[in-house]
Design goal:
Elements: H1 12-19, H2 23-26, H3 32-58, H4 60-83, H5 91-104, H6 108-124
Helix pairs in contact: 3-4, 4-5, 5-6
Length: about 120
């Protein structure tokens, strides 16, 4: 996430955790810290959900475009992470990561490097 973006009060990891409650949580049993966090975060969670619902109802194209942009950004992040991994990467995975960068990256030097890697892989094959 970029430094200029506003960090949400509730992280995606916490939302995922709350979306899959254990038995005790399903029964409404939370420790004091979790209850305090929910009391603070619930208004933001509800507000965000209402904004998404309103956008989906009133501007479905804008919502689809935003979701597509987010998916592309996630694919770019995964490709960059795979390429920079300290462990050796399977050639098939490296090629897929480079193709993702070629297709979606806005950084010309990154696209050029990915193109060079793919060319070298083809020469080696």
């Amino acid at each position: 996430m970029r430094d200029t973006e506003v960090q949400p009060l509730v992280s995606d990891d916490l939302l995922a955790e709350l979306a899959n409650p254990d038995y005790h949580q399903q029964c409404g049993e939370f420790d004091a810290e979790t209850r305090a966090m929910l009391a603070t975060a619930l208004p933001e969670i509800c507000s965000e959900l209402l904004r998404w619902r309103q956008t989906a109802a009133n501007r479905p194209f804008a919502l689809a475009l935003a979701l597509r942009s987010e998916a592309i950004e996630n694919r770019l992040t995964d490709a960059r992470r795979a390429i920079r991994a300290p462990d050796p990467i399977h050639p098939r995975d490296l090629a897929a990561a480079c193709e993702t960068l070629l297709r979606h990256s806005t950084d010309a030097s990154e696209r050029a490097a990915a193109s060079d890697v793919l060319a070298q892989m083809q020469e080696a094959a």
